[in-house]
Amino acid sequence: MKKFFKRVYWKICSIILRLMDEASDKRICGQSLVKYVKSVYRDDANGVGMTGSQSTHYIILKRIFSHVTITEKDSFMDIGCGKGRVLAFLLKKHAPCKISGIEINEISGKVAQEWTKKYEQVNVTLGDAFEIDYDSYTILFMGRPFLPKTFLQFIEHFESGLTHPITLIYWVDQQSGYLLKDRPGWEKQFREKLSTIHGLKVAQTPQGYSVWTYDPALRAEAQKQ
Predict the structure, then answer these.
(1) What pLDDT score does 200 carry?
(2) Is the pLDDT assigned to residue 19 strictly greater than 70?
(3) Cα(131)–Cα(158) distance, rounded to whole angstroms?
(4) CA–CA distance, 46 with 153 (Å, rounded to integer)
């Protein structure tokens, strides 16, 4: 009986969250961003590849971004932006900076490109996240776009090109977040696991997110020792 009520509670919460998300999506994007899109390449057995596009609930994003200050001097990039839910959230919250996203999956990326056309503040690139320069950005968001080995390869890729400190927001970090621990130049500012927010169950099992800062000067100093 207890399991039955848990399933009913989860189903009710899922319906409420979907309705809330779709209302915000349609107001900002003119369409729903709820539908899941499968990965174009994923090899779980070897821990490489990309994950599918699953839009994060607005209520979760509100909680995550409450720990980050965004100013007009910042430049934001969502790595693996999918259909653009994070970009929509930032528009909803009137983020004062330039907002960008990159997505390799054409199905998801074209959706994001289409609805963001009316917002001059936003730019979405359809392409490989390994092929762009991140030195012009100050805040990066990752909603677990990569499996562990690919995540580590990506971190090594963008570390080498940065000349200034950045903030990384990592949602669903439990699979790969440990790879940043004790890594030269990285410092964890905050971490939390979420399953329920304001009485609504937002995840069947607790999902973690963390906020990190990376300073290439600290990395260079550590490497000299």
Answers:
(1) 95
(2) yes
(3) 10
(4) 14
Residues 149-152: contacts with CB within 8 Å, 24+ apart?
Answer: 149/46, 149/47, 149/48, 150/47, 150/48, 150/49, 150/50, 151/176, 151/179, 152/176, 152/179
Q: What is the pLDDT of residue 205?
A: 93
Which residue in this structure is represented by tokens 């848990």?
6
Domains and CATH numbers, the chain: 2-224 (3.40.50.150)
Cross-strand pairs, 162: none
Helices (H) and strands (E) in the chain, counts: 6, 11
User: How is residue 41 written in tokens?
Assistant: 């390449």
Helix (H, G, I), strand (E, B) or coil at 188: strand
Q: What percent of the chain has pLDDT over 70?
A: 99
Q: Which residues neighbour 157 within 8 Å (Cβ) at sequence distance 6 or greater?
A: 130
- pTM for this structure? 0.94
Q: Which residues contact 134 (CB under 8 A, 6 or more apart)?
A: 77, 140, 158, 161, 162, 166
Dist. CA 217–CA 13, nearest whole Å = 45
